């Protein structure tokens, strides 16, 4: 309410009838303005009272929220007014547990086909006290579809880099095989008796190069083959603690202190634990390598907006800027005995989880790897998957 109206209301007992009428007209017009603004929003907006009944809803909410027909007159908690059981269960669970800062995505059928809707619950605060809750509903189908297209483009780009990497890798062994085959051919053509030692050496080299080629192909297939990940709901904290327990002795031996900072609330993400552990193991191996003289390794899990962030922080050598941009490239390594596929695989696993990865590093200080998981809800991921298979949703 505007300050002017508030002040006028204080004087109400002293106002005459016409002054009261004009005050009321002012309040009504202000109210209409606010209501019109809310009805003009493209997002659905619903206000719930402390008993979770609908106090107000805007026009977009009628279109986006799966309300039952004639819900307006019904004095029931919002979850009893919905046609969709999943949305109803989410709202009931969150509101009854007083969890009013949550976002969840659902796939709902609309006339134009399935749409992904994001439902965000927020507390309704008035004069410092909670007076109910608000529900904001947004159609995020197009954004999700753009993200999914971007991911496909990314994976195509990484396949191209990978193919270029393989081409480069196989050049050397092929060249070396060619030279030794030529040597044998020359010896055969010369008509002189063959020297058994030389021949055996040439054949041995060819054999070694064949093994090297085989290794490259096996590694390549491992890195590009679609992973048969099965994403299920699981707690990130347990995965991290299990891994730290498993690696504890090895890390202690390497003079590496460990620290865990775990999310105390809901730590659920959609994950394939086997693959996720493999990715984390690759990150830890890199950190251990970067802290050859010991250091500190910190793992943290933290709720972010509507997803989860997992951080691995080391106090190792750090990565120079010109190296940083190449670390995810297949076969890129600065180590004598590295395959350069460790982070390529990490990247692939992270993308399979619909997550994002970011690496920040400072030479001499250390490296931080952050994996950002999307909200733990199965259905949108499935829709995205279907969209990828069928071509596109939009
Ligand atoms: N935590 C880290 N600290 C410093 N440098 C890192 C770190 N993680 C990765 N790097 C750099 O990125 C490069 C690529 O890493 P990646 O894990 O892909 O391959 P690799 O460790 O060299 O070999 P592989 O993992 O196959 O044994 C490394 O060679 C290293 O230079
Ligand atoms: Mg590595």
Descriptors for this entry?
five-stranded antiparallel sheet, Heat Shock Protein 90, five-stranded mixed sheet, 3 domains, Beta-Lactamase, binds adenosine-5'-triphosphate, disordered C terminus, alpha+beta
| Tally of DSSP β-strands | 12
Approximate shape? elongated
Give the class-level CATH name of the largest domain: Alpha Beta
| CATH fold title of the largest domain | Heat Shock Protein 90
Structural class: alpha+beta
CATH superfamily of the largest domain: Histidine kinase-like ATPase, C-terminal domain
Q: Strand content of the residues, in percent? A: 15-25%
Give the second-level CATH assignment, the architecture of the largest domain.
2-Layer Sandwich
Q: Helicity level, as a percent range?
A: 40-55%
Quickly count the domains. 3
- Biggest sheet character: 5 strands, antiparallel
> Strands of the largest sheet, in order across it?
2-1-5-4-3
Give unreliable regions as ranges: 378-394
The molecules bound to the chains, other than polymers, are: adenosine-5'-triphosphate, magnesium ion
Descriptive account of the structure:
This protein has helices spanning 3-10, 17-40, 59-64, 85-96, 141-189, 196-224, 236-253, 273-290, 321-324, 342-352, 378-390, and strands spanning 44-48, 54-57, 102-110, 113-126, 129-139, 232-235, 256-261, 268-271, 295-304, 307-314, 356-362, 366-373. It has 394 residues and is of the alpha+beta class. The chain has three domains: 3-144, Beta-Lactamase (2-Layer Sandwich); 154-224, Orthogonal Bundle (Helix Hairpins), CATH 1.10.287.130; 232-390, 2-Layer Sandwich (Heat Shock Protein 90). The strands form three sheets. The chain has a five-stranded antiparallel beta sheet, sandwiched between helices. A five-stranded mixed beta sheet has the order 7-9-10-12-11, covered by helices on one side. A two-stranded antiparallel sheet has the order 6-8. A hairpin with a 5-residue loop joins strand 1 and strand 2 (54-57). Helix 8 (273-290) runs antiparallel to helix 10. The chain is elongated and about 125 Å long. Adenosine-5'-triphosphate (ATP) binds at residues 282, 286-287, 290, 314, 316-317, 319, 323, 327, 332-335, 338-344, 367.
